[in-house]
Amino acid sequence: MAYKIKVWCFLLVLLKLESILQNCANAAPQVPCFYIFGDSLADIGNNKHLVTTAKANYRPYGIDFPNGTTGRSTNGRTTVDIIDELLGFDQFIPPFATARSRDILVGVNYASWAAGIRDESGRQMGDRIILNEQLQNHAATFNRLIQLLGTKRAAAKYLNKCLYYVSLGTNDYINNYFAHAFVPLQSQENCLAWTYTIRQHSLRIFYSIPQQSLLFGNINNAVLPFNAGLFSLVHRLNKELNNARFIYLNISGMSSSDPSVPGKSSTMW
Fold first, then answer.
1. Is the dihedral of CA 225, 226, 227, 228 positive or negative?
2. Which of 3, 176, 177, 245 could serve as a FRET partner for 187 with CA atoms 20 to 30 Å apart?
3. Closest Cα to residue 91, out of 81, 105, 78, 79?
4. Alpha-carbon radius of gyration of the chain
């Protein structure tokens, strides 16, 4: 018998998250577990031992951590680290590479620097844990939860209470589409939306992070077709999937003065 997992997916920007959860930081955790999929914006050490240039094992990375570099591509905490704290967890969610035993009960971070929605994105950087492999790692986590909790039903019931987060998409542009290296330019935005669609039943969570780039100043304009498709997809998923709740928050729309930007300055449930 198959057990459906209901996922409440909060797609939030940090500034909004702080205002929503500011009263929760010192309370008991608001959810029992937090599972994270993504790229360098969320990776906290999964790439440390991979053969890749996409790793943060040298200074100035980690200069704000007492023990130095941690694998995070930042000087200190990542967005998901801050979310951990605001949700009330007393420790950072561990990376899949080092999560052991009952650690997985509080959640797992599967994110990998250079990963994208598409399998080939970021491969010029070397090894990385692509989205499909992150999903496989979560399946392995689910099997370990079954062992810890006794049955599939118990493991599925436990995951029903958890928060899922994903930040992916940037590398499909800056380390694929704009690199002109692996995917032909025609209809790339449609390919990305299609890839999200075929993975919706596996991942059930979506997060788009349009990002300004010093190398590609027009990246925000380039992702508008993808965001429009994602906006429609989230609306359709909420109608079709009764056991999930998706929230769309358009970051690029909030910073745009163009009234035609889909979902501008709004959240769509």
1. positive
2. 245
3. 81
4. 18
Report pLDDT digits (tens) over 198-245.
Answer: 455 444 443 343 333 344 455 666 677 777 777 787 788 788 877 777
Mean pLDDT of 72-97: 93
For 186-193, the CB contacts below 8 A with 24+ separation are: 189/222, 189/223, 189/225, 189/226, 189/229, 190/225, 190/229, 191/118, 192/117, 192/118, 192/226, 193/226, 193/229, 193/230, 193/233
Burial class (CB in 10 A: 0-12, 13-18, 19+), 235: middle
Nearest to 128, CA basis, from 137, 119, 138, 115 = 115
Q: Is 268 helix (H, G, I), strand (E, B) or coil?
A: strand
The answer to whether 187 and 195 have CB atoms below 8 angstroms apart is: no
Q: Predicted confidence band at 258 (pLDDT cuts at 50, 70, 90)?
A: low
Using alpha carbons, select from 151, 154, 147, 17 the residue that is nearest to residue 83. 17
CA pair distance 232, 123, nearest whole angstrom:
30
Least confident of 1-10, 49-58, 66-75: 1-10
DSSP 123-160: GGGB----HHHHHHHHHHHHHHHHHHHSSHHHHHHHHT
Q: Give tens-digit pLDDT for 122-147.
A: 988 999 999 999 999 999 999 999 99
Length of the chain: 269
Cβ–Cβ < 8 Å for 265, 254: yes
Q: What does the domain layout of the chain look like in residue ranges? A: 7-268
CB of 227 within 8 A of CB of 252?
A: yes
DSSP 49: T
Fold of the CATH domain 7-268: Rossmann fold (3.40.50)
